[in-house]
Amino acid sequence: MGHAAAGQYEGRWARSTAYRATLARSLASAHRWFHSFRARFAWLHLGKLHAIDVETGREKWNFAAPKQIYSTPSRFQEKVLFGCDDGKVYAVHQDSGTKLWEASTGGEVWASPVVRQGTAYFGSADGHLYAADARTGKLRWKQALGGRVYSTAYAAERSIYVGCGDGHAHSLNAATGKMQWSVLTGNGIDSSPALVGGTLLFGSEDFFVYALDANSGAVLWKYETGLGISSSPAVADDVAYIGSKDGFLYALAVKTGELKWKTRAGEVITAPPVFSEGVVYVQSWGTLALDAATGKLLWRAGPGGSVQGAPVIAEGVVYVAGNGGEVYALE
Amino acid sequence: MDRRTFVKRTCVGAALFLGGMDALAYDDEVKIPPPPPIDVREAPLAKRSPLGMPGLYPGRVVELSDHRSIAGNRVSQPIVRQMLERGMRELTGESSARAAWAKFVEPKDVVGIKINPSGAPACCSSPELVREIINAVQSAGVPARNIVVYDRFGYEMDMGGYQVLMPPGIRVLGVQDDRLDASGYDAEIYCQADFFGEWETRSYMASVVARQVDKIINVPTLKDHSASGVTGCLKNVGYGTFNNVARSHRAPFSFTNPLIGVMCSVEPLRSKTVLNIMDGTRMVWHGGPLTQNQSFIYQAGILLVSTDPVATDTIELDLIEKKRQTEGAPSVWERNPKSITSNNGEFYQDANKNLFYRQPGHIAVAGKLGLGESDLKKIDHRQLLMG
Which chain B residues are within 8 Å of A227, Cβ to Cβ? Predict the structure, then answer.
């Protein structure tokens, strides 16, 4: 199962979903709820959403959607939420995969639904951000933005932050959807923002990493990389880790934008990195583990060759998805 | 039940191939095997569209040059807009860009914009240019819902960010998501040939071309190609429309000549392709089509606008040959066995190495098939320096 070019890793199980490339993208930020809820299953997809037993790699159930699924699933209570290319967001039961509700938009939904205080927020290729009751799927509000919304929103207590394909980063009132501020970057935003203290971090296809004041939208600093950015930041200990299409993974000080280190991980990075216990993991035609303090490569694993998914890390196991439709669990 | 009838014809591969070798200076040690006959099954047309290849202005190519169109590897959409408008007016003789576009698309049309995302993110059809083409098509009255930005491979489009960067309402379509997915292709239209004893000898036309769009705006990049010599208008719209095309080249030999030209001649692809806008903001002069090595990517800052794909690719070939000469790299016509490597890493780092004996003769073959003008001396090449 692959190779270890530097350091080592050990294969635990591998499972083929017999599907194709979008699996990788869907896995992108599953770690958010995986860590939070200690879930027993990993939900994956492609035209189907798969629930896989993390101990054995066996499929528990699957849910067949009408079209492909690029959206990373999220969890709210007993529900698993995800978007689909048919323009809908689905909620299915975590134990059975039974559909509980669906909510319609006018375009593909690649972003992950984010739930905060009982409301699910998600963007659509139709150029709108939606807020729906996470229990029923009933629409609470929708707000027209200027471009396609593939960025997964960040839901804070009172504000929703999201990037847009027309280059704007937006802050909206979480209760009403009213626009609070907008900041224009030099190209579209695919990157999903992260909020640290009062600082909003994200990348843009204009090659820059941005840090904005979350209250006002004022640009605190921006850092130029060598090509566009569709990767999203992972933050730990006041350092933001983010990849660029120039192939480098960057570590930047959250407060100043100062470069701590950059390491060439491959020809292109589009996946978001993941931080866990002093190690940064990122996919770029394989999975790389780097020392978070120095950027030194600890190990590189070949399986899957995914370029878009983020590894999911839980209880000492790294789960990665491959472009061939496989899911791997690595020690 | 589909009541269409289909016609089948045979292109004599070897004859076409040899016809495209007029400019070659062969090394006697290299024996290039002749290509096999290619059977074509295509949709019949009552009358070939006058807008189809070579289009309304055969032999005319407008080259626009503006160094401000790309800076620090970023493409300037406002400058590209000016270049595109000027190019369309120059090509058609119309006084306004809107009137120029109206010669090619009508409000009732479903318009496909065929991009080239291979090589993304380092070199692909610039999203900035594609957005301007969308604006222009809409200015001619075509609604957003009738515009499709497409390519064969969805994952390459994702790498280029097209799904995110196109305006809402536009359809962004990857015909297939992996190399074995054939569900997006029309089983009734195909080219068939056995090149190397491969198990699947047919290449089928994408359904979006065969059945969905009325007009195609072709947006290739200005790029060399390890097998075909260059990848321009012809290869982008030919190999970007039919599946299972990688089988035409097996190192070190390539049958991209004559297959590229033959594919472009197949209806309805030929009649639907009405305009070519080559993105030359970046020029890949070695390592194409997939290189990410910036050492071989020159920020040329040009656009080529034409209805004639053969004439445009002839200009493209000339530009790449001159650049390679400037850089001290061998011609794409070279047939020296010492230049061939089976090491991809070496190919991507050394402009003196290649994976195949390249076949740029496919451009001349396409000319012989009536798709355009391949004689550089006969091309109405209009060069406009804008900045």
Answer: 73, 121-122
